[in-house]
Specification:
Alpha-Beta Plaits; 14 helices; Aminopeptidase; 2 domains; alpha/beta; 4-stranded antiparallel sheet
């Protein structure tokens, strides 16, 4: 390994304890999409203290009307005050009010070189965390204190990796050329946050964009293929990084309201039962015939309804998503679902409203030759065991960033930082091993050096 790569890896290793504590703090104060005020204030303070050339905060990071799935103002006000109560750092917290929870740190060396963007998502999920002694965060005192918000997908780790990458690259700034943009993106869950950043123009000069996600190295899915294909490497130890030629799964997140008429349950004919319309629609949506246009998934994940046991229900909200492994499959299912909703409402004399809360397209996340190049870099310059490249699928709003960069000929790589999961993605007992976060930071920094010609 060349000395500069050795030095950077050694520095990241020296930050292991800090990374563990930082990730656990983010885990304890989990903030779901567009709520990430405290998280962003801590990130912004860190980047400013590092002396980065520019730190974009809040509205500076977005095309405002391209954000999707924003909560209502009462909720935004509530979570802002909660963030202050839980230690958000002023004056930075004020920048992240009203659903402008994003931070971008920029290193501009003023020396000729590539423009590189690194993307980390930072939001939690709407999950109630396990509160039993067998769950390590609970036993360790860092499980989420915010009921119904939990880092059950590893984004607390992603945020920590991004902060470490910023610190490391600033430490070795004299070795760099070109520009690095480190993007801390909100609201990935529900695929809501990346479009506003992509359409802001901040990526329009980017030559290379790289994204991260935690992933289970013991999975039986995509990356086992890569390990089997590289048996010699597998004998040396556990794979640290997973790479794929990944295609993004098309996605549509819909919130649907049915509006009926309330009446006393003794005289149901006087009302229009919105719950019947919602249940009829939900059942029929699950029964949409499959299509030869591509594989697909459908899920109605939540129903909110009713005001009392003796009142005909006059208002129902259902929260659902559609996924297609091709764009055509998604469009088929979405059109079918919209027809079902319309006719279920009419059947029970109700009105309806459909709101698009998040979306992604079926596009390639990865530039294959770029993935191959970074896999070789990780093996030869960082000494990593790399699983893949292998075929894979994701459903990620990172796709908006990959598409934006590809429009002007740039290249994209979405890599997996491998660890062990005690529970599935989005499960109440999800957790990661912080020691594996070091590999994510090393891969980002190694990629920066490599792309800068080191």
């Amino acid at each position: 390994m060349e000395k500069i790569y050795q030095d950077i890896c050694a520095y990241i290793d020296s930050r292991a304890e800090w990374m563990k504590e930082r990730r656990r703090d983010f885990h304890k104060y989990a903030e779901a999409g567009w709520h990430e005020v405290r998280t962003c204030s801590i990130i912004a303070d860190h980047l400013v203290r590092l002396g980065m050339d520019r730190v974009l905060m809040g509205s500076e990071c977005f095309k405002a009307d391209a954000r999707m799935g924003l909560p209502d103002q009462d909720e935004l006000d509530r979570v802002y005050q909660r963030a202050l109560d839980q230690g958000a750092i002023l004056p930075y917290a004020e920048k992240f009010r009203d659903g402008f929870t994003g931070v971008i740190g920029i290193i501009d060396t003023s020396r000729p070189g590539p423009v590189i963007a690194f993307r980390q998502d930072i939001d939690a999920l709407g999950v109630f965390e396990d509160r039993t002694p067998g769950h390590k965060p609970y036993a360790g005192g860092y499980s989420s204190v915010n009921d119904g918000e939990m880092h059950a997908c590893g984004h607390d780790g992603h945020a920590t990796v991004g902060m470490t990458v910023a610190e490391t690259l600033m430490k070795f700034r004299d070795e760099l050329c070109g520009t690095v943009k480190i993007v801390f993106q909100p609201a990935e869950e529900g695929v809501r946050g990346a479009r506003g950043i992509a359409e802001s123009g901040i990526l329009d000069d980017v030559d290379y964009v790289i994204g991260i996600h935690m992933y289970d190295r013991n999975t039986e899915e995509d990356y086992e293929i890569g390990v089997r294909a590289n048996e010699e490497a597998a004998k040396l130890g556990k794979p640290q990084i997973g790479l794929a030629y990944a295609r993004n799964v098309a996605n549509a997140k819909l919130d649907v309201w049915f509006y009926g008429k309330a009446a006393h349950a003794m005289h149901p004919e006087s009302g229009n039962n919105a719950l019947l319309a919602a249940l009829a629609a939900s059942q029929a949506i699950y029964a949409i015939p499959r299509t030869s246009l591509g594989d697909s998934r459908i899920n109605v994940g939540q129903i909110e309804a009713g005001s009392g046991r003796n009142v005909v229900c006059d208002r129902v909200k259902i929260v659902m998503e559609l996924r297609g492994y091709t764009q055509e499959a998604l469009e088929y299912n979405e059109a079918y679902a919209r027809r079902i909703i319309e006719h279920a409402a009419a059947m029970h004399g109700c009105g309806y409203e459909i709101r698009m809360m998040g979306a992604t397209a079926a596009v390639m996340l990865d530039t294959p030759e770029f993935v191959d190049e970074l896999a070789k870099m990780a093996r030869e310059k960082l000494g990593m065991i790399v699983a893949g490249p292998a075929p894979g699928n994701n459903s990620e709003d990172y796709s908006f960033m990959a598409m934006r960069v590809a429009q002007h000929g740039g290249k994209s790589c979405f890599f997996h930082c491998l660890t062990e999961f005690p529970d599935v993605f989005h499960g109440t007992g999800f957790d990661i091993d912080e020691a594996d976060l070091l590999n994510g930071a090393k891969f980002f920094c190694g990629a920066a050096l490599h792309l800068m010609g080191r």
